[in-house]
Structures are given as C-alpha cells and as structure tokens.
Amino acid sequence: MSLLDLAPVIPVVVIEDVETAVPIARALVAGGLPVIEVTLRTPVAREAIARIADEVPEAMVGAGTIRTTDDIAASVAAGARFLVSPGTTLSLVEAMDSSGVPYLPGAATVSEAMALVERGIKELKFFPAEAAGGVPYLKALAGPLPDVRFCPTGGIRVNTAPDYLALPNVGCVGGTWLTPADALAGRDWARVEKLAADAAALR
Questions:
Q1: For strand 123-126 and strand 103-104, is the pairing parallel, antiparallel, or unpaired?
Q2: So what EC number does this one have (predicted)?
Q3: Cβ distance 6 to 34 under 8 Å?
Q4: Three-state SS for 176?
C-alpha cells in the first residue's frame, strides 16, 4: 500500500530528547496515526528512529529531512522504513531509489514534479506547502499533472488540513502540530494521543 494511503496525517516529529522517542510513538499510534516521520534535525534523531523501530513495532517509522546519501544509509541502518526529503537532486533520488524502502521526494514547482514523473515517481512531498502556494497551487497542479499525488507539508494546521485532504491529488498531509513542544517538555502523552486521534478522524 502507498505511504499516502496509510493515514490522513503523517506526524512530522522533531525529537530533542531521545528518552521521549518511544512514548511519543506509542501515543501517536494509540491515537490512530501509525506512520511517523522523525526529522533528522537533531543529534539524537537516528537513535530515536532506532528506539522506535525496536520498541514500537506497530509504528511505521521513517526519516525526514533527508538531504544527503549518508542520511539515507544511516537512516535505513537505524531502522527507518521510509524516507522523506525536503527537495530533490539527481544523486539524492537515485540513492533513495536504491535504498530498498519507500520514499517521498520533495518538490515545490511544476518542473521539479515533472522531472520526478519522468523517472516514474508519482507520489511526492509538496514542501513548503503553505509558503509555496498551498491549496490553490495544488488545485492548479491537478490539471496538467493528473496522475501525481502529494503529501503537502509545511505550515499546515488541524484547521487547514481538511482543505488539503479534500483535493483529489492529495493523499495525506504532514503535520508538526501533533507534537507541540510544550506537550513534549511536560511529558503530556495523553495530549499527544488526543491530537493524533483528532487528526486520524479527519478522513
């Protein structure tokens, strides 16, 4: 099954304290969101992926903010089951294609999307969604690129997610609102689970 069809929202999680990785994942899964993107924006990100992969097998954990071929190898070795990049270069997409796991390469323009379609890739991350044109932009892309589907990420909130999910070329959205910094700092896993449940109910 496509990554875009597993849940309406993919939580995009920045983990600063590796000890929170497993409780975050368990809360998100309990709320109905089993697909979790851990961004490689912190020094503990890869260890967080490894812990989630090892201790929360019901979660499908992936690595986000993939920018280099080294990121790909290290993330897959840590246990990442999918990869997400903010943008795409030729060397990066070739390495992701050889990784053995599903991936969502980033695109923000028609030309970038068309270049990926030429390679047979028709499921993309649209980033930064709000800054790059949001719902109107994606609606416009559906005409010339009817066979391409997107996971928009960047600036999307619970109140705007339904507008994206209503588009025929959007399979799911990525969201950071599910793991607010104050909830993580306070170890408020019940709040994370409730935010996940609300997001899971969007479809």
A1: unpaired
A2: 4.1.2.14
A3: yes
A4: coil
Q: Which CATH number describes the domain made up of 3-200?
A: 3.20.20.70
Q: Which residues of 20-57 are buried (b: 16+ CB within 10 A; e: fewer)?
A: bbbebbbbbbbbbbbbbbbbbebebbbebbbbbbeebe
**Which of the residues are catalytic?**
37, 125
- Residues 59, 160: Cα–Cα separation, whole Å: 25
Q: Which residues contact 20 (CB under 8 A, 6 or more apart)?
A: 184, 187
**DSSP-assigned letter for residue 153:** B
Domain ranges within the chain, ordered by starting residue: 3-200
Residue 177: which of 164, 201, 160 has the closest Cα? 160
13-55: pLDDT as tens digits: 999 999 999 999 999 999 999 999 999 999 999 999 999 999 9
